[in-house]
Structure to design on (1144 residues):
């Protein structure tokens, strides 16, 4: 583990990105402390530009809501949804992959065809349909994103299991008479996990983008500020007040960029045999 | 054209609005295709079957009603009917029809078309007509240009007259008779008598209309054609106007927040007239099955918690007025200012809530509600955002639940799965057409835009029924003034503001907003600079 | 041990194609059942969607439900749908009041043009710049391109679209803002084609740029890997010119993961086009699907899913074949994990 951290820390870009992600998470978690304005309070002067009024450093939107507070609370929604969705997708996908890889035969065939079915449907379309049907609450957004993202980890785990199955240490465990479940959870899974973990970071990044795109299309929880919805609201006044769309877009970009870099760093650190050139 | 005082007042509210008058002295130029924005593509475009502004916006240029609304007295312009007269007992209504009118397929328009539409389409299938014409028994056609509507029960002539613009679009009998009207292909490929003929509809792209050279009011129309470009996004509509890709956007299709900027651009004008006949309200709909909300003190408290001027200024950017009851002020025949009002007063609201036995709890919350803003308008959604904050200030915690149109329709009007909702009913020139249905008890579930609130008051119901049968106009108006007073006292729903839409157009477009239903009228007088 | 290229394509490649085709019906059935269940779970049906926009009283609602067969039980409706499907009938769209096939046929070319254009653009730009970057890893050009790709890869496409529209359509007025052609202009032939192309520039750019970044990164990563491989080292030792080495050996090897990704992204591309179609008011399949959900038009939604599933299947087959052509040494079928 320390090994991993050391390797990860050697990559300066990834380290910086990890700091950014940590910073964002911290800012999102302590939004009220950092900037105590209520992101939903409609009292302020409307359409204030950024850097004009110290009471609203990033300005206000049409209803006079504070943009900074909305950005911070948007970060909270964005990150919570993204991590939860990526986590759910990874757990679900690993379980399916493990089951398919271990069971083989008909169960494997069935599970893989279901995976095919999910992969055949454009992921975003699936998420869109899910949220339209279940309502735009954070919970259903998590579910929708997970529903379209679990197939990647499932295939990865299954492939890893297939490649591990013939290895000596696995055979040894079988010969030693360990119960199948023990072999699966104690021997196979831990060894199959590293690529899945690196993949999970990619899933977090794409979950941030999907959540934003869904809320951009109007499928956002109206009770909470969300970056995608902020861009959509800003779009109505894009020409006259472009920063209302630009600021949340930049926040999105920064988040996705940082998460991607962390994922890459993880990938490199987990696969040390591929040294950098 | 005469301008009445109320129209002038209406247009004086916003500083940057323009005069539709400057161009009037000039001779209309003939020719040119007007490109306008459309944001919906109704599944059924036949106004004889669907009386809805989304349908009229396109269809009213092709298919005409018997009469259109007009500014000033007597308030109507003849279209397919030249004149009409109700009998003293209210049981018959005689229409004198225009002669020499032909449908776009060349066949003549006669009283048989009116009789067919009235009995087979309006009465049997039309969303509003099914209720409105329920007592219509027969239509006599003594000659090709006279139609007499016979009713089983008294029907005020005033009410029928008020319904002429919206409920009486006439399509050719020969294309509909003997078919299943709802599956008739001419619900999309429209055939009518109007100044424009329907050419084609490309779903997701455009509708195209062209001049009807045989229009009864030839040489009108002035335009060679109209193209409706489907642009579902409001931001895109504003940008398209600015880029000159379209010349007109009606129904406030441009975000209000962008309107101010657009109005300052050379070559673009913002016009706030031409919608008085289709005034909308923003209402707070209340589920009376919820015990806290069944208490009139709580409903009054909610009314006191709302600041209509905030809604007017921030959400409508000045293009609305605080509502006084469910009948808009524009309709001076029925509207009365003599009714209780609930000025913005959070302290009074809190006092009322305390009095109703709903004190603030340890977390400052008196009770929690689910609030469902209707998804149809940007403003109804923003009203949801605002109401949530306004209620929070008096200790009512509201959770916003936003659904798509089908989900909202089902939750509010069928399943009654809401506590509060934001609605946007339209007033159609007479309280009996689509307003009293919001207050009438005993309606079956599933009827959209009706009293699905679980509220029923026998006195109110009796008043509504009587007014709908009272033939004498003055008596009828008095009954509706009483109706408004009860509505304001009991507050079964809370009208917050009344609003009409805005049109944004290139200054090259003339003949805009020349009647109170302009956006949904025939545009025969509209023209473009050379 | 590599067999001659030609014979390989005719051999196992066709086996794989047959296997994929054999699996397709089952996969499709799963898609249909899933989509149907999802729509059944939705609050409100097609009639609710209709009256929400056009109104109607209780009797009308009942009649409409009967007319559209929505008064039948869900299993009955699904079986009826499948029975129709078996005869090649995709059903009737209640939202458009036209056959589903006709509605889809109208929108499909638009999405194909958009997604196809974006793929071509992304592939050409991505691999081209990827080769430039990967030719000298860690060189100044590589650093600039890699950084740009990293940023672009993290950019939300709808946001990029808005900014591009603001710049090129509203401010500069070089390109049309929305739609796919000048309406009522009466263009035909080449002029019409050019008009369509002009309208598609911004949507294709928006959708393509994000994927170009992805392909650039993949291409570059593949090349970095290839530089380290034994055969490149050997080729270097033999003194082959760098230019030749880059193009013939390094880039060719690096192309494989890019082609794989091309196949994997085909489904994503259709999904991604939903957002871009909505930003630029492009009447494509993605927007149609969103509309089908809003209108609760299940025959239409199922039809779109079937068509897009077939498309994805087709693209994957093409990618399999392409893969075999680029690298005959790779065992076909090993590509998919």
């Amino acid at each position: 583990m320390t090994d991993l951290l050391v390797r990860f820390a050697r990559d300066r870009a990834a380290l910086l990105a990890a700091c950014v992600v940590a910073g964002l998470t911290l800012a999102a978690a302590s939004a009220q402390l950092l900037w105590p304005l209520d992101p939903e309070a409609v009292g302020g002067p409307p359409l204030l530009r950024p850097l004009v009024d110290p009471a609203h450093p990033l300005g206000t939107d049409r209803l006079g809501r504070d943009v900074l507070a909305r950005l911070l609370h948007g970060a909270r929604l964005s990150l919570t949804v993204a991590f939860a969705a990526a986590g759910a997708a990874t757990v679900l996908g690993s379980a399916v992959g493990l089951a398919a890889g271990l069971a083989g035969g008909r169960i494997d065939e069935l599970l893989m065809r279901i995976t095919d079915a999910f992969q055949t449907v454009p992921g975003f379309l699936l998420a869109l349909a899910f949220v339209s049907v279940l309502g735009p609450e954070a919970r259903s957004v998590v579910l929708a994103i997970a529903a379209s993202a679990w197939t990647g980890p499932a295939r990865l785990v299954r492939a890893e299991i297939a490649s591990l199955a013939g290895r000596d240490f696995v055979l040894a465990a079988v010969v030693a008479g360990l119960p199948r479940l023990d072999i699966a959870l104690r021997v196979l899974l831990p060894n199959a996990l590293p690529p899945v973990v690196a993949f999970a970071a990619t899933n977090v990044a794409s979950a941030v983008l999907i959540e934003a795109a869904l809320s951009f299309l109007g499928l956002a929880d109206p009770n909470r500020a969300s970056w995608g919805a902020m861009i959509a609201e800003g779009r109505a006044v894009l020409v006259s007040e472009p920063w209302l769309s630009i600021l949340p877009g930049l926040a999105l970009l920064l988040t996705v960029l940082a998460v991607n870099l962390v994922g890459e760093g993880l990938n490199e650190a987990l696969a040390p045999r591929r040294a950098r050139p | 054209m005469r301008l009445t005082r109320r129209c002038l007042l209406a247009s004086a509210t916003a500083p940057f609005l323009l005069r539709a008058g400057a161009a009037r002295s000039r001779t209309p130029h003939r020719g040119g295709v007007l490109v306008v924005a459309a944001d919906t593509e109704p599944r059924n475009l036949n106004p004889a079957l669907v009386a809805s502004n989304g349908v009229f916006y396109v269809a009213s240029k092709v298919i005409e009603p018997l009469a259109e609304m007009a500014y000033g007295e007597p308030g109507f312009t003849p279209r397919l009917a030249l004149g009409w007269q109700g009998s003293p007992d209210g049981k018959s209504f005689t229409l004198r029809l225009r002669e020499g009118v032909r449908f776009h397929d060349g066949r003549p328009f006669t009283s048989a078309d009116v009789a067919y539409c009235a009995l087979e389409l309006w009465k049997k299938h039309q969303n509003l007509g099914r209720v409105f014409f329920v007592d219509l028994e027969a239509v006599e056609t003594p000659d090709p240009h006279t139609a007499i509507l016979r009713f089983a029960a008294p029907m005020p002539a005033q009410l029928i007259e008020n319904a002429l613009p919206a409920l009486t679009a006439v399509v050719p009998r020969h294309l509909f008779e003997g078919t299943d009207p709802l599956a008739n292909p001419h619900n999309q490929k429209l055939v009518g008598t109007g100044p424009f003929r329907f050419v084609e509809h490309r779903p997701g792209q455009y509708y195209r209309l062209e001049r009807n050279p045989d229009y009864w009011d030839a040489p009108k129309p002035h335009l060679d054609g109209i193209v409706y470009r489907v642009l579902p996004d409001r931001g895109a509509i504003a940008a398209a106007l600015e880029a000159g890709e379209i010349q007109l956007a009606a129904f406030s299709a441009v975000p209000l927040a962008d309107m101010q900027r657009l109005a300052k651009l050379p070559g673009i004008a913002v016009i706030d007239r031409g919608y008085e006949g289709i005034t909308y309200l923003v209402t707070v709909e209340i589920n009376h099955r919820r015990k806290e909300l069944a208490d009139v003190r709580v409903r009054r408290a909610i009314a006191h918690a709302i600041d209509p001027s905030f809604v007017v200024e921030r959400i409508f950017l000045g293009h609305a007025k605080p509502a006084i009851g469910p009948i808009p002020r524009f309709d001076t025949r029925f509207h009365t200012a003599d009714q209780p009002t609930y000025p913005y007063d959070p302290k009074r609201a809190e006092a009322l809530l305390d009095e109703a036995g709903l004190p603030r709890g340890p977390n400052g919350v008196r009770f929690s509600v689910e609030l469902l803003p209707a998804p149809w308008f940007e403003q109804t959604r923003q009203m949801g955002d605002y109401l949530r904050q306004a209620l929070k200030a008096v200790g009512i915690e509201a959770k916003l639940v936003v659904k798509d149109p089908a989900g909202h329709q089902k939750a509010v009007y069928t399943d009654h799965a809401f506590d509060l909702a934001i609605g946007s009913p339209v007033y159609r020139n007479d309280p009996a057409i689509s307003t009293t249905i919001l207050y009438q008890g005993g309606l079956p579930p599933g009827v959209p835009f009706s009293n699905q609130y679980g509220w029923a008051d026998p006195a109110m119901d009796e008043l509504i029924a009587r007014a709908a049968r009272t033939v004498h106009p003055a008596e009828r108006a008095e009954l509706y003034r009483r109706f408004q007073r009860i509505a304001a006292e009991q507050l079964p729903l809370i009208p917050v503001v009344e609003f009409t839409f805005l049109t944004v157009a290139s200054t090259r477009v003339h003949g805009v907003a020349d009647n109170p239903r302009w956006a949904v009228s025939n545009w025969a007088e509209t023209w473009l600079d050379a | 041990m590599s067999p001659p290229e030609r014979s390989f394509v005719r051999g196992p490649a066709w086996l794989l194609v047959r296997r994929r085709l054999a699996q397709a019906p089952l996969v499709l059935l799963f898609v249909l059942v899933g989509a149907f269940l999802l729509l059944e779970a939705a609050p409100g049906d097609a009639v609710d969607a209709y009256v929400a926009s056009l109104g109607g009283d209780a009797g009308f609602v009942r009649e409409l439900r009967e007319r559209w067969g929505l008064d039948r039980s869900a299993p009955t409706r699904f079986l009826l749908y499948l029975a129709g499907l078996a005869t090649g009938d995709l059903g009737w769209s209640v939202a458009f009041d036209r056959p589903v096939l006709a509605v889809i046929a109208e929108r499909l070319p638009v999405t194909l043009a958009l997604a196809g254009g974006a793929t071509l653009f992304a592939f050409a730009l991505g691999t081209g710049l990827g080769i430039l970057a990967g030719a000298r890893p860690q060189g100044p050009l590589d650093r600039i391109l890699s950084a740009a790709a990293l940023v672009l890869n993290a950019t939300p496409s709808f946001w990029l679209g808005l900014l591009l529209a603001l710049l090129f359509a509203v401010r500069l007025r070089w390109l049309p803002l929305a739609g796919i052609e000048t309406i009522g202009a009466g263009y035909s032939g080449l002029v019409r084609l050019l008009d369509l192309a002009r309208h598609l520039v911004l949507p294709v750019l928006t959708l393509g740029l994000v994927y170009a970044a992805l392909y650039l990164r993949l291409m570059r990563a593949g090349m970095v890997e290839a530089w380290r491989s034994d055969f490149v080292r050997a080729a270097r030792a033999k003194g082959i010119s760098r230019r030749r080495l880059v193009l013939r050996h390094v880039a060719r090897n690096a192309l494989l993961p890019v082609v794989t990704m091309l196949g994997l992204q085909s489904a994503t591309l259709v999904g991604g086009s939903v957002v871009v179609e909505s930003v630029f008011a492009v009447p494509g399949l993605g927007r149609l699907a969103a509309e089908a959900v809003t209108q609760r038009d299940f025959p239409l939604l199922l039809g779109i899913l079937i068509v897009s599933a077939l498309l994805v299947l087709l693209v994957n087959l093409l990618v399999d074949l392409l893969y075999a052509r680029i690298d005959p040494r790779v065992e076909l079928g090993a590509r998919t994990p």
